Amino acid sequence: MSLIQDYLTGDHRRCDELLSAAESAVDSGDWSDAEQKTQAFLTTTANHLRMEEEILFPAFEEATGMTQGPTAMMRQEHDQMRGLFAQIEDALQRQDEEDFLGNTETLLIMIQQHNMKEEGMLYPMADEHLVDQSEQLLDQMKKTSE
């Protein structure tokens, strides 16, 4: 049973859908809707990153002893994403469609590559090494989402 992988992969898809909705709103010129959808994406994605950084990664590192392995790389990529979040928010405030869509396109490529690493490597390793803790970790992650 791959509880961690299933849950976090599903959350990736939810974040992807929110980003697509925000892009569509900007593309149609509805800046009010774009504001709401962008904030939903940013809030949901920030929560996802926090679940990983505060719950999954520490548990994984403790169970495996790997502190400079995949979790270190994922944290670096999260920081890069946060930089793009700020640029997206800035473009949104300026109602700069070209800048907004350029930054979301860059972010989408980064997210796709990042998610492939997590879904193909980190999450399966987490399910393997954290099998005895997976339900407890999932409960903690779900509480973070509330």
Would you mind describing this structure in some detail?
This protein has 146 residues and is mainly alpha-helical. The protein has a single domain, classed as Up-down Bundle (Four Helix Bundle (Hemerythrin (Met), subunit A)), CATH 1.20.120. The chain is built from five helices and no strands. Helix 2 packs antiparallel against helix 3, helix 2 runs antiparallel to helix 5 and helix 3 runs antiparallel to helix 4 (97-129). The longest helix has 34 residues, at 31-64. It is elongated. The model has no long low-confidence stretch (mean pLDDT 95).
Strand content: under 5%
Counted by DSSP, the helix tally is: 5
Count of individual domains:
1
Q: Specify the CATH class.
A: Mainly Alpha
CATH topology: Four Helix Bundle (Hemerythrin (Met), subunit A)
Low-confidence stretches: none
Q: How many strands in all?
A: 0
Give a short account of the largest sheet. none
The termini sit apart by: 24 Å
SS-based structural class?
Answer: mainly alpha
Instruction: Kindly report the average pLDDT value.
Output: 95
Q: Would you identify the CATH architecture?
A: Up-down Bundle
Order of helix and strand elements from N to C terminus: HHHHH
**How big is the Rg?**
16 Å
Helix content, binned percent: over 70%
* General shape: elongated
